[in-house]
Structure to design on (849 residues):
């Protein structure tokens, strides 16, 4: 192979030498006697097939205008071969006058003196055809080294044989992958760059340091690590393999380049593909890197050849020729004067839209180090299992060191304001103590800001804010629950939307679904400080073989005599709906519990009670008490229970695990939060003071402190509490938890949710009919038409444990007919006020305990 390449190289050098000899003989002057251009010029490119034919037609049009100019061309099989042969030729003083290649070549070629700067050669009106970002892609040091012809950036390809709808967000991409639609994505740093901005991150700070450690990048890495576990996802750093996989025809989505369009079209057919801009993230739009294909000039060409090269390049890159190339082979013109008709050229239009929002791939040593080293973070997280926050910090410092800069210090608060923050909160016990200690720490860092903190019952906070609207109104920040936020957003909202005051630098530190808990109608009304979600607490002494990882494990353990009781409050039991593949809402706020998940979960609960002896109860406080007493093996509870359970049971006995998985996926709980809300009253300066406090309370150090001292699940994505720790388990669960919506539709679900369980488990009604009836009723109450009745599906069979007769378990002293009430545990409850808890159980065979 090497001999063949060497022979090819020698042949090309001889060819180039003869071309230059002809040029030197016949092209003494660039103009003929009649003033027309004359001479010969050589251009190299890597076009093939239809692209090569279209480019040849462009050259023919130039020859027709300038008949005394002979334009010779040489096509190469690949861009890599073109670059290698060009370097070989130009170092010997030969080669073409123009080479057409990607802008990523500019830095190495310019650094070696293998291409000529163009600042003095190209007229200013030519440069004005391009946007500043486009020109940034062809710049090196202080000079420009190429005339842009076409854009090359990433967008989202669709296979219309598999899917029909377009996607606008990564949440939509997640839903498609969860349903088994195949998604193909490359995870090299260059290819995966687009997600950093989507999660609010930046690569470089204002001082030139790499700032990938500030949260957005870690969030993106965490999202990818989770996304790869979906059934329809292939992440790889081999782009050629991914593209070929997409061309096979069974994949739905492919994140690919504009330069791959013709290969994909040839494989799948133009009628079967579509393209849209990359899906937006939770904080901002996707921002891929932008490259261009451009004309670069040889430094060894004569003055006459340079003049011909300038004339030819201006012609090939003008609006008419760029437009013709677009229409013929669907290149994406870099010339902004080319009009792109979205109806006639929808794919090109989508790529052009994405290109306008892309970040120029800079030809700088600093960016080269980012691209060279940055991919290691993806490998560490996706293949090595390194926590995203740890990988982000490590790669940031590694790149900065390569760039001759020091390690990035944690960003400090800029306490430039003087004033008072008035804080009303409803935190109690250990949470209140932790809040007081954090306020003291904040005062030590920001001594000019005084924090006046006052406890208030949640029911009285509305009155406090209403009274603050008269006279000299001051900004008040409220620290409270998601439910409190909803009560403060009445017909006359008492708190303001915070979006206008929040920067991406602050937003990117939060887990995306944490922010979703404080949105209403897409507007953000607060910033979270602690998450509330459920995990599976277990007693190590009662489960010597480890906790149940699946619902089948639960039944197997029950059959072996492990005492198991499950909470059947709607919110606490929702994990089982997700474990059976169900979800609450579709994209139109329609409740879709009847489309799968709820009915098989209810049937599983009933069968587990009747045939396996599990106890079902909606008395959460009673279940927790019995768990602490060692009477039952499991308790589904929140992180707010952690500190007290540790103290009462001991760390050697208490374990925390993810919720059991089912046939439809992982058991995923509903997610709520505690957050900061800002009153309608107050000045911008006062709000700035509040934001300083919020930044401090949500930084990694403060979040770690709250986790350790108050059992609060962190909202900051960069916090590292140890994957094996109980809080690490809560953080793992939180990344996939479902943010409970803040809308009237969810209120109706909560008001009626317990009836699903009572009618099936107490009244013994058929689960499918109950779910269908209640779902329809909820949607009608919400004013939303239900979907057509789905075809009945069979319930996944649950096999009894071979050799074991299932024992029925009754909680000692528990009366199935007794009324109960919610105990004040210091945590939020989804049980409606006045609801009667129920306990359903089967007496053990042969008598009672």
């Amino acid at each position: 192979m090497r001999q063949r390449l060497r022979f090819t190289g020698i042949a090309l050098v001889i060819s180039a030498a003869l071309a230059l000899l002809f040029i030197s003989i016949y092209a003494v002057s660039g103009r003929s006697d009649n003033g027309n251009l004359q001479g010969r010029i050589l251009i190299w490119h890597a076009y093939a097939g239809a692209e090569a034919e279209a480019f040849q037609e462009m050259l023919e049009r130039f020859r027709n205008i300038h008949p005394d100019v002979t334009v010779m061309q040489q096509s190469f099989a690949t861009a890599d071969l073109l670059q290698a042969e060009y370097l070989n030729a130009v170092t010997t003083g030969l080669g073409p006058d123009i080479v057409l290649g990607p802008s990523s070549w500019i830095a190495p070629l310019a650094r070696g003196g293998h291409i000529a700067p163009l600042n003095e050669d190209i007229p200013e009106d030519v440069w004005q055809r391009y946007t500043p970002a486009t020109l940034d892609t062809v710049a090196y040091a202080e000079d420009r080294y190429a005339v842009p012809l076409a854009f090359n950036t990433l967008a989202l390809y669709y296979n219309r044989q598999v899917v029909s709808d377009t996607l606008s967000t990564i949440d939509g991409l997640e839903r498609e992958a969860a349903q088994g639609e195949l998604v193909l994505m490359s995870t090299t740093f260059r290819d995966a760059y687009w997600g950093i901005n989507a999660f609010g991150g930046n690569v470089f700070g204002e001082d030139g340091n790499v700032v990938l450690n500030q949260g957005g990048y870690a969030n993106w890495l965490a999202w990818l690590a989770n996304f790869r576990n979906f059934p329809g996802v292939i992440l790889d750093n081999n782009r050629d393999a991914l593209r070929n996989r997409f061309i096979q025809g069974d994949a739905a989505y492919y994140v690919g380049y504009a330069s791959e369009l013709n290969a994909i079209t040839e494989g799948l057919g133009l009628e079967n593909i579509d393209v849209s801009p990359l899906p937006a993230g939770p904080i901002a739009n996707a921002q891929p890197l932008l490259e261009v294909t451009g004309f670069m000039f040889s430094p060894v060409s004569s003055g006459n050849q340079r003049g011909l090269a300038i004339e030819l390049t201006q012609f090939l890159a003008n609006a008419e020729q760029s437009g013709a190339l677009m229409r013929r082979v669907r290149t994406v013109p870099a010339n902004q004067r080319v009009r792109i008709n979205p109806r006639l050229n929808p794919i090109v239009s989508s790529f052009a839209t994405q290109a306008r929002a892309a970040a120029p791939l800079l030809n700088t040593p600093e960016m080269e180090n980012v691209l060279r080293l940055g991919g290691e973070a993806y490998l560490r997280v996706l293949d090595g299992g390194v926590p995203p926050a740890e990988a982000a910090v490590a790669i940031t410092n590694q790149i900065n060191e390569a760039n001759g800069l020091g390690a990035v210090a944690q960003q400090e608060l800029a306490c430039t304001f003087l004033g008072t923050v008035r804080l009303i909160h409803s935190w109690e016990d250990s949470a209140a103590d932790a809040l007081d200690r954090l306020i003291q720490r904040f005062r030590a860092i920001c001594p000019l800001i005084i924090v006046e903190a006052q406890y208030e019952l949640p029911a009285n906070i509305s009155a406090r804010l209403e009274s603050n609207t008269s006279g000299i109104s001051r900004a008040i920040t409220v620290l409270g629950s998601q439910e409190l936020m909803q009560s403060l957003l009445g017909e006359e909202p008492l708190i303001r939307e915070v979006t206008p005051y929040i920067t991406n630098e602050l937003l990117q530190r939060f887990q995306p679904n944490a922010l979703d808990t404080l949105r209403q109608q897409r507007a953000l009304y607060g910033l979270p400080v602690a998450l509330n979600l459920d995990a599976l607490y277990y007693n190590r002494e009662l489960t010597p073989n480890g906790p149940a990882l699946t619902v089948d494990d639960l039944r197997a353990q029950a059959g072996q005599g492990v005492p198991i009781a499950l909470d059947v409050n709607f919110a606490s039991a929702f994990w089982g709906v997700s474990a059976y593949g169900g979800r609450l809402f579709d994209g139109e706020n329609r409740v879709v519990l009847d489309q799968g998940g709820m009915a098989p979960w209810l049937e599983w609960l009933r069968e587990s009670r009747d045939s396996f002896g599990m106890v079902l109860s909606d008395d959460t406080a009673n279940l927790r008490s019995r768990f602490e007493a060692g009477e039952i093996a499991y308790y589904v509870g929140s992180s707010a229970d952690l500190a007290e359970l540790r103290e009462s049971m001991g760390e050697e006995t208490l374990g925390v695990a993810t919720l059991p998985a089912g046939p439809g996926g992982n058991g995923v709980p509903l997610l709520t939060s505690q957050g900061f809300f800002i009153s309608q009253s107050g000045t911008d300066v006062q709000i700035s003071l509040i934001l300083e406090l919020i930044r401090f309370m949500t930084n990694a150090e403060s979040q770690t402190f709250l986790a350790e001292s108050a059992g609060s699940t962190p909202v900051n994505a960069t916090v590292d509490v140890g994957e094996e720790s109980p809080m690490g388990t809560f953080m793992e669960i939180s990344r996939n938890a479902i943010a409970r919506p803040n809308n009237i539709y969810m209120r109706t679900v909560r008001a009626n949710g317990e009836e699903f369980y009572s009618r099936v488990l107490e009244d013994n009604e058929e689960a499918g009919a109950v779910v269908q009836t209640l779902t329809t009723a909820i949607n009608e109450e919400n004013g939303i038409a239900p979907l057509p009745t789905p075809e009945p599906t069979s319930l996944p069979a649950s096999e009894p444990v071979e050799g074991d007769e299932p024992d029925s378990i009754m909680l000692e002293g528990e009366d199935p007919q007794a009324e109960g009430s919610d105990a004040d545990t210091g945590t939020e409850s989804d049980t409606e006020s006045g609801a009667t808890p129920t306990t359903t159980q089967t007496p053990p065979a042969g008598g009672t305990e």
Summary: The chain has a mean pLDDT of 85. The CA atoms of residues 37 and 311 lie 9 Å apart. The two ends are 83 Å apart (CA to CA).
